[in-house]
Design goal:
It contains 19 helices and 20 strands. The protein is of the alpha/beta class. Among the domains are: 340 residues, Rossmann fold, CATH 3.40.50.1820; 31 residues. Helix 7 links the parallel strand 13 and strand 14. Helix 12 packs across helix 13, helix 12 runs parallel beside helix 14 and helix 14 packs across helix 17.
């Protein structure tokens, strides 16, 4: 009887037992609708923290890429962890779903972000969106991984021979204030380049870079986030088919500055084997915040934290303020006037990057850097006819003040700098262009001139200076480029061709947008050819430390030589790639060698100097007047003597 009862119970429970896995499976698909549209395969990878479930993407060329999105590498940095170094993520049980992007790090809404989205009909489009359209949280420290499917299968299938491929870790830009890893999809670069691509989130704005220059908030939290992410890659990327001994870090704009900061940080040593800094350098003045306490105090006042010289109390108050409130109160001024940026803290950054490179204290790996032809034209995209928009000296002064922050307590230094820049870019170039007009007719610049000034000062000259510093050390190869291609089908510049090759525009080609069947942009054959070229150059550099290795790839029909002191060459990356001798030196030398006379060695104008100057002028005037009177009296005496009646002499005696 007892046996029969147990049998009946088992029979009744059997349908329930069989249904449970089915329900779980259906729940997974319903909670990830995009995964259901992408593939029914859910690959699983093993990490040091636990297992993660990803998804498979189908590319337009019928190849497939395995993706793992929003893998946490650190514990959420809120509460007492705010304004502190990140803590590694604790292990989890079960399988973590990694099929959807996670939250953005807290950021303000002042600038829109370009995103590649799929509409309801699964058509890919590029759109400019506000960060407020995405979920944001302090619990944002995660990374995304893209792996060619055959490589991932070789790792997870015990019957196949395992092999690993190079890794490319992308650090996004956004003036240390906005953006996130999700806006840089890595599937095409991974598949076509034969590399594992990793993108990441790191803390931004005050949450990532506020510093009081003491132990209560030393700063550089966003940089320490990046280091922890790179350590996670070293420990785990082999489980995804990546080679931890062959990791290239690359980034654009502020991300490029982050890359070159890792090159000089002792904490980053051994975490990467090559580096690419695009339109950003650690030697740029905007890349380092030299007066962080000023902006920490401003932030505290704006959120009603009591004004106090006690930084311990100040930070205690800021930890209680809502993260969104901290992000809303910050702002970026024109021309990269960034409030919160990395600082020299003696830990992550022992000294200013230029000094560290000059002493040979940097991570000596192959390095590639460069910029776009028209760089900051994108800042002026709201102008319909920039040639008609005049830029006064006062407006130019405001831009230069934000970008260069001249060290002066008076206006004389800035006035001298503005005059020098105006003369170099407006007056001299006006005359050298063949016009015979007077200087008065060349007193104003237009938006095109302003774009050239700001691009040279903020982005191009620092890149060239960085290359020169490394070339002087001559330890590792250094490659310089200028991206000059602009598409007739560019979604931003289609109606404004004067934007040209604008800031960050090369990233659309490196990420393969022309190959991803985007509905509203990059659909020409020329776009696809440029994309193929850049994918090859970037992935070659990741694999070999050389963008054009001799033994590889007949599709690349030029040889890109390293930049050296004796041969300052660079690659002009347009519709056709050409190697040239650097012709940027005239403008670059102006910013590298002449402008520092005003920014680093300011004119003095304090009271003591004014007093000494007054005494000097009065003394000089007195001595000058006295000398003048003495000389006048002497001359008068000489004249009087010359015109006095002569003495009549007797006739000379006759000889005997």
């Amino acid at each position: 009887m007892i046996t029969l009862s147990i049998s009946v119970k088992l029979i009744l429970l059997l349908p329930i037992i069989l249904v449970i896995p089915l329900c779980v499976s259906i729940e997974v698909l319903q909670s990830n609708p995009s995964a259901a549209n992408t593939s029914t395969t859910f690959p699983v990878a093993e990490t040091a923290n636990g297992r993660v479930r990803g998804k498979v993407l189908n590319l337009p060329n019928n190849k497939r890429v395995v993706t793992f999105l929003d893998i946490p590498y650190a514990e959420p940095p809120f509460g007492l962890r705010r304004f502190k170094a990140p803590v590694p993520k604790e292990p989890w049980s079960g399988i973590l779903s990694a099929t959807e992007f996670g939250s953005l790090c807290i950021q303000h809404k002042h600038f829109k972000i370009k995103d590649l989205i799929s509409n309801k009909k699964q058509i890919k489009l590029i759109e400019a969106r506000s960060p407020n359209q995405y979920r944001q949280s302090e619990d944002c420290l995660s990374l995304n991984i893209y792996v060619p499917e055959p490589v991932f299968e070789s790792v997870t299938n015990p019957t196949m021979s395992t092999y690993t491929i190079p890794v490319m870790v992308y650090i996004h830009g956004g003036s240390y204030e906005i953006s996130g890893g999700r806006f840089y999809p890595g599937e095409w670069l991974s598949s076509a380049g034969g590399v594992v691509v990793v993108t990441m989130n790191y803390r931004l704005g005050p949450l990532g870079f506020l510093s009081t220059k003491d132990r209560y908030s030393p700063g550089n939290y966003g940089m320490l986030d990046q280091i922890l992410a790179l350590k996670w890659v070293q420990e785990n990327i082999q489980s995804f088919g990546g080679n931890p001994d062959n990791v290239t870090i690359f980034g654009n704009s502020a991300g490029g500055a982050c890359v070159s900061l890792h090159m000089v940080s002792p904490l980053s040593k051994g975490l990467f084997s090559a580096a690419i800094a695009q339109s950003g350098s650690s030697v740029a003045r905007w890349a380092i915040q030299r007066n962080p306490f000023r902006y920490a105090s401003r932030l505290a006042r704006s959120v009603d934290c009591p004004k106090s010289a006690n930084t311990k109390n100040l930070m205690k108050c800021l930890r209680r303020v809502a993260a969104n409130a901290l992000a809303r109160t910050t702002r970026m001024a024109d021309a990269l006037g960034i409030w919160f940026a990395p600082v020299v803290d003696g830990y992550f950054l022992p000294d200013y990057p230029e000094k560290l490179i000059q002493r040979g204290r940097y991570n000596m790996v192959p390095f590639m850097t460069g910029f776009t032809k028209d760089e900051v034209s994108i800042w002026m995209e709201h102008y319909e006819d920039p040639a008609e928009e005049q830029v006064t000296k006062e407006k130019l002064k405001e831009y230069l003040k934000n970008m260069l922050d001249p060290k002066a307590d008076n206006s004389n230094n800035l006035e001298a700098l503005v005059h020098a820049v105006h003369t170099e870019y407006v007056v001299r170039r006006h005359h050298s262009s063949g016009f015979n007009n007077s200087t008065q007719n060349a007193t104003t610049a237009n938006i095109h001139t302003l774009v050239q000034i700001l691009g040279d000062a903020g982005l191009k000259a620092p890149c060239v200076k960085h290359v020169q510093l490394l070339a002087n050390q001559n330890y590792t190869p250094v490659y310089l480029y200028e991206f000059t291609y602009s598409s007739s089908d560019d979604w931003i510049s289609k109606d404004r061709p004067w934007l040209g090759a604008y800031h960050e525009s090369e990233m659309y080609y490196i990420l393969g947008y022309p190959q991803l069947a985007v509905k509203n942009a990059y659909r020409t054959l020329e776009d696809q050819a440029v994309s193929n070229l850049l994918v090859k150059l970037w992935s070659n550099f990741a694999k070999y430390g050389n963008p054009t290795p001799k033994h590889y790839d007949v599709q690349i029909n030029f040889t890109w030589q390293p930049y050296t002191k004796d041969e300052p060459v660079y690659a002009d990356l347009g519709e056709q790639a050409i190697v040239k001798i650097s012709d940027h030196m005239s403008s670059m030398n102006f910013w590298i060698n002449f402008v520092p006379l005003f920014t680093d060695y300011p004119l003095k104008n304090d009271r003591r100097v004014q007093c000494n100057l007054t005494v000097f002028v009065m003394t000089s005037s007195f001595l000058g007047l006295t000398s003048f009177l003495c000389i006048t009296l002497i001359l008068y005496a000489c004249i009087q003597r010359r015109h006095r009646p002569g003495v009549v002499l007797k006739d000379p005696p006759t000889s005997v």
